[in-house]
Each structure stands twice: as structure tokens, then as C-alpha cells.
Amino acid sequence: DSSRQSAAIRRTAGEGGEPYYSNSTQLPVNYSDDIVHVLDLQDEIQTKLPSEVWWFLHTPAEISADGATAVLKKGDARLWARILSPAGATFQVMDPLPLPSSPHPEKQGVNKGVKKLAIHLSNVSDTRLAVLLVPLKKGEAPPKELPVLSSLKTW
Question: Which is it for the CA torsion 90, 94, 97, 101, positive or negative?
């Protein structure tokens, strides 16, 4: 349900790995009228104490990550991902397991054939995390022009 999703988004780990809720997290999804530029996911995160922040995208697609970019491929379909903010953030590919500091319910699904594309930020107290997702046609290169980020208050 949406209240659980919202709480999970706001859950961060403070010093010593103890989880707590940030004082502010927003998770809007913007879209473009351009059918090629589909999703711009953006979080503005403010925490009470410097925190570890994780962002995940679970997928059955094959993932190849290289720094701030990644390509998800399933059959002929490709999705290009680009971290727009913060500068220096990188993608990593992980197994779909809970983090050691996260709950691990006994009846949680195994997620066979699934990987997760992840971003890990350390020592965060105030940041914007923005990821652009663009579907690519066969043989098409990723876009050269990236969208300009704006405050979520203007969305």
C-alpha cells in the first residue's frame, strides 16, 4: 500500500546503521511530451543526521552499468539510465536481497531472475537524486542532451 511505500522511501540509516525517518523526502516522477524522453525520477532528500541513502530499481533485464550510466536489456528492448544528480554518484548492480540493515521477512519472495540497479550515497543530509530513464530503439544511441533539473516545487 502507498503508506508502506512512502515509509520505505523515507527510511534511511543513521550513524551505526540505525534506521530512522528523514525529515523530508519527496518522490515525484516527471515525464516529457517527447515520446523518446520518458521518465525523470527525482528525489529531494533531507535527513536529520548524515545518512546512507540507497536507490533501487528491480528488474529481470540484463544490466550493464558504467559509472553514472547503465543499460537494461531484455530481448530487443533497451532502457538507458543516467544519473543526473548528485555529481559523482554511480550505479552498481546487486542481487535482489535486503540490505543487512533492512528487515528480512521469512516469507519474502526469492526474486529469481531479478537484479537490482542501485545507487548508494554516503554521508547525505541534503541532496537531490535524479535519474533519467530513456527507452532506446534498436541501434539508437543515448541522447546527447540531458534535461535541466528544476526544484520539485516547480513540478
Answer: negative
